[in-house]
Amino acid sequence: MAHKTLAEMKAKLMQGDEFRAAYEAEVRKERLQELLAEWRSHAGLNSADVAARMGIAPSTLSRMEKNITSASVENLSRYARACGVNTATLFFS
């Protein structure tokens, strides 16, 4: 039996609808987490600063960042505003 490369294994798994959907959801989650970290870094803020600007506890912000795919559009907009991101650019750029 020949060994398969990781790319070959991934390609085979991606043929399944359930795996592909789960994989794509994880990619979206990671991209959104990276975007929030980029906003925070660009604004020169730490997570406690963002939480204070949003009027929430740092632990609440941490949960939101970890479970980002369940965050509401309103909370994402509040996060953006806390980091100085124009929320209009979120929807119209």
Characterization of the model:
GO terms for molecular function: DNA binding. This is Transcriptional regulator. Keywords: Plasmid. InterPro entries: Cro/C1-type_HTH (IPR001387), Lambda_DNA-bd_dom_sf (IPR010982). It comes from Pantoea stewartii subsp. stewartii DC283. The model has no long low-confidence stretch (mean pLDDT 90). 72% of the residues lie in helices and 0% in strands. It has one domain: lambda repressor-like DNA-binding domains (434 Repressor (Amino-terminal Domain), Orthogonal Bundle). By secondary structure, it is mainly α. It is elongated and about 60 Å long.
Question: What descriptive keywords fit this protein?
Answer:
93 residues, mainly alpha, 434 Repressor (Amino-terminal Domain), elongated
Structural class: mainly alpha
Low-confidence stretches: none
Q: What is the H/E order?
A: HHHHHH
Mean pLDDT reading: 90
| Count of structural domains | 1
Fraction in helix: over 70%
Describe the secondary structure blueprint for this structure.
Elements: H1 6-13, H2 17-42, H3 47-54, H4 58-66, H5 73-82, H6 87-92
Helix pairs in contact: 3-4, 3-5
Give a short synopsis of this structure.
Residues 36-90 form the HTH cro/C1-type domain. This protein is an all-alpha fold.
